[in-house]
Amino acid sequence: MGEAAKVHPDYKPQTAGSLKDYLARLPDVASRLGGKPDGWTVEEVGDGNLNLVFIVKGPSGGIAVKQALPYVRLVGEAWPLPLSRAHYEYMTLTHHGKAAPGLTPTIYHYDEAMALIVMELLQPHIIMRRGMIAGTVYPLFAGVISTYMANTLFATSDMALSAKDKKALIGDFAGNTALCKITEDLIFTDPYRIAELNRWTKPWLDGHAAAFRSDGPLKVAVSRLKVKFLSSAEALIHGDLHTGSVMLTEQDTRIIDPEFAFVGPMGFDVGAVIANLVINYLSQVGHEEKPGARDAYRDWVLRTAEEVWVQFRAKFIANWEKGGIGDAYPRDLFAGAEGQRTLAAEREAYMDRLWQDTVGFASAKMIRRVLGLAHNIDLEWIKDERLRATAEARVLELARDMMVNTGDYRKITDITAAARKANASQPKLTG
Ligand code: SR1
Ligand code: MG
Percentage of the chain with pLDDT > 70? Predict the structure, then answer.
């Protein structure tokens, strides 16, 4: 299980005590905290699946410190994982920070040997997933995430880069194989076979899990998506763009945690955002105080999903019109008024193809959160297991249709309308 971690001789996982000594040796960071190390507080707050995360505060300010462990935190030392993921995260924050200024955390220090990144403390930001479970509206989210995706994906695509620079970018990220393998297994393979790490709400979803394992058209469809994930080097994608990778307040939104980044299919990022909004929508039944109490919130969630796609599409095309200087679609092939019209039509066709990828990848992201290893707290925090299974079965049934009948979902409103229908459905549970 997993690639063995190459550990630098200087590497050691930090503790609250050792981290103070470490940070004290970094003059810029120490002055940001202010005072003396014995006046600093350190708290380990990591609740993700992979890493250590510390919040350090001093009299003058605070910082966040993220350190990779040589194994998967969620599973333990039995699943080794390379520390190099910190390197890919750091590089991606650098690229994406340039393409989408102000939308990623500022980096203060990176230590390759320690696999450790010191960055801006985002406070009073919270993880978006938690805010959505509490029913908080984020009016600026659709605008920001669509800008982030349109800018980062466009800037690292063949429409913006020369073939030489694009190939160099592919090479720079080609080593992030262990993190890609997690995605290849946990998203595109395990939910469709018997796998040790799979889990689901039992016994209620036993029938759904068994049906998915013997569903030929579904397994073909997910395998086609896997081929795309393995072979489409379209842009530097975040690679894990769910609502747990977004920290925000009502005014400020930041995208964190791009350790799964590589040059892959753009629809994987866009699909991740749409999938996680739809999952949250379908989970609201388990978070409202009485039936219908969250109806207005449900509407906001689906409106947001619609806005995300509509704005992303428009912003990506605008970036292309302005900055289409890459080696794809050479300008002299589309000179003159007729050429411009042809190119404008092709941009629309490109986005239509990207939309179809988005639908497919969104469905894969939905299924993995119900039948695979790593679930979402949107669903996990529903205490009543039968109710949780009902919400999860709705996610599965909607996602199966999106994956097998992708062509029927021609616009984002086809997904949101199907989500509303799914929310009113009564799936047949086991037991
Ligand atoms: C073993 S890692 C499981 C999941 O956690 C991350 O957030 C990714 O989504 C990954 O698939
Ligand atoms: Mg993460």
Answer: 99
Does the structure show a pLDDT above 90 at 47? Answer: no
Which-ligand-closest: CA of 256? 2
**Tally of domains within the chain:** 2
Same domain, 274 and 372: yes
pLDDT digits (tens, 9 = 90+) for 35-45: 999 999 999 99
Same-domain check for residues 218 and 330: yes
Q: What is the DSSP string of 161-205?
A: S-HHHHHHHHHHHTTTHHHHHHHHHHTTTGGGS--TT---STTTT
Indicate the average pLDDT of the chain.
97
Nearest by Cα to 194 from 372, 365, 393, 363: 372
Tell me, using a 6 A CB cutoff, whether residue 377 lines ligand 1: no
- Using CA of residue 200, residue 205, residue 210, residue 212, what is the dihedral sign? negative
Residue 431: exposure state from Cβ atoms within 10 A (0-12, 13-18, ≥19): exposed
335 in a domain, yes or no? yes
186 lines ligand 1 (CB under 6 A): yes
If asked whether residues 22 and 171 sit together in one domain, one would say: no
- Ligand 1 atom nearest to 373, measured from its CA: 3
pTM above 0.90, yes or no: yes
- For residue range 216-254, list pLDDT tens digits in order: 999 999 999 999 999 999 999 999 999 999 999 989 999
Does 272 sit in the ligand 1 pocket, CB within 6 Å? no
Among 120, 142, 174, which residue terminates a domain? 120
368 CA: nearest ligand 1 atom: 11
Residue 215 belongs to a domain: yes
Residue listed under structure tokens 């955390």: 105
Q: Provide the domain limits for residue 402.
A: 126-423
